[in-house]
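Subject: Protein record for review, amino acid sequence with backbone structure tokens
Category: Structural biology, sequence-to-fold work with a learned token vocabulary.
Format: Residues in single-letter code; tokens as whole numbers, each standing for a residue.
Body of memo: The sequence and its backbone structure tokens, given next.
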Amino acid sequence: MRHKRFFNILVACLLLLQFTVYPGYAKGADQTVPTLTSSSGKTSISADQAVQIAKSNFKIPEKYTQLFTSFNDNNNRRSYSLNWNSPEPPGGNFQVGVDANTGEILNMYNWDQPGKPSFKIPTISASEAEKTALDLVTKLAGKYLTDLKLVKDEGQVVTLNNYQPFMYNFRWVRVVNGIPFPENAINISVSGEDGQVKNYNFNWTKDLVFPDASKVISLENATQVFTDTPLLELQYYLPPVMNPKDQKPQRVLPVYNLSSQYFNGAIDALSGKPVTLDSQASLYKSFGSVNGVLGSITQSTQSSSTTDVKQDIKADAPQIGRDEAVEIVKKFIDIPKELTLLNSSLNPDWQNPNTQVWQLDWRNQPSASRDNRYLSARVNASTGDLIGLNMPSSISTKDTTEPLSRENAQKIAEEFLKRVQPQRFTETRIQTSFQYGGKMPNSQSFNYVRQVNGIPVSNNSLNITVDTVGKGVLQYNMNWSNVEFPSLDNLITPNQATEFFLKERPLTLGYTLLYQQTEQKDVRLVYQPQINFSPSTSQMIDAKTGEPLDWYGKSKSQWVKPLYFNDIQGNFAEKEIGLMGLTGAFGEYGDKFNPDETVTVLGLLRAMAVAEGNGRDHVLSDDEVLKLAKDRGWTKGDTSIPYELNREYLAKIVIRLLGMEIAAQAKGIFAVPFADANSISSDSLGYIALSWGLGILKVDDSTFAPQKSVTRAEAAYALVHAYAAANRP
């Protein structure tokens, strides 16, 4: 149910955002929506016209009878956000964004909450989905087609889960002077279940000046600059915790990763110099960071003599109480008298699941002026460390004087950190301290990255924001993992790491966009490591083996990727094997399937786990596969599991997959048309009758032969037809 809850929360947040940030109106779908204008002037397109434009391009599902309309004015682009919803369950949302000046469709998002869980098998081919996507691009943005290039994700994996249908994703990238400009693009998602477009996003920046590409440095020179700088640095990397309930120690990997001092490995193609993080650091918009997952985890390679000592915190160690946690907060800040402690809770820390944290929230009583003030803090219940603080500027001293310089704000930040974390502060280095130009902002943020054995630790830092007007701390957060760090012996050299990295992600020429503080847009021509926008894109290099790693810390050999088998042509299960290959299942032999080989029970269970998406976040050991199979009921109640898969046991597994075991266990109601029906155990007859009757098992003989071994082709056939049976209305 995790995915289902996520989408519910996402839709709720989108709706809440519209009503808390933008002026909005809620009307029935058949009622007239008032014309909305921005504070800076009228628009060319009225709200009513925007609704008609949306309806003329998309068929709004009839069940969505409520329309919520809001007006947005962001980055000099005025637009309407039109949201159709249903007041009756099951829920869903159909959202369309329309440019208020040109009438262009900017985005569309269509989400239907499923009435009941069911497995989703793609019935639409990739080529059919691509045609649907191209037709929509032609319809909505046809005048831009000559400047667009389709970039396919060849690594997209089909997932047969029971939450949402598989989506084919397509991306058309803007091309200028034959050079890609990935920040301007059209993204489309098409459902593999029914071929409906579920998502459309159009991003196009006008009035840009693109540098002449006639005088770029050569790729060889750019590669030399990348190597000499160097743009890769040695780090300790902590992969994200995917399951907070997992009791395994968090992994720590020495890696070579792109340095945060530079702009995602970019080299200016005209000057030949690395693009550094200067005064515009926080305003860069990069196509080189996949989903932004690694945007701020790296740090300078300056060495440190600090050596980490692991804190031995036991799960049953005594913990401080709420009142003691409150007193710890009061040691470091003055809590305004008008604020009252209204909420407190003890919760596990997400990145350190064995650690309990006190969450403390103070609020004032809302006044007629609606001057709602609050303060929140987090305290480690085991160590008593203040690890989080949030004090918005509304409770800071109101001051109309000139904001502090960044240098003076940094002094306030460091004084606070030295009081709160005196020892840990000495074990950090500031992340790329730069000076702002022009008018100083009302807040300044600083990130002090943890150093162990002279190298930075990803996602471990002391982060702090200072109110430059109120001259106090606004926010503070400490992320400091309780882990053991491996030695730095037997590492590959930086030059070797660069060679491995650029082999996996060669430098490519492209335009990228920089946003200035004055909102001026600056296009730069750069060489940058190639990105294919796939979740398994190599983010870093294992510093011991030289193997590419993704952001889960998995090596390339562990990545789940679609498989295209070269030995299945003409096989009776060619279609089914091909579909299972797209999920990444049955990949024991690479691009060979070996259809006539006998399959093991473990091999079948592993294929089921991969097909349902469980292999994408981590590689499962044999014991983990067996545990997952037991937890999901695939091997429920079995005291022993055979090594080789036979027809009788296959029937049990697929019927359990369908949740039909209760029916299969009924006595005296089943019969099968096989000559050897009398040899079938009464305990297995129901499973076999149901799986045969549903067309799941491939049996061409007049006998069933329950103990006959199952081939890999027969197993793939059975799985696909089992998932198809689960998806029947």
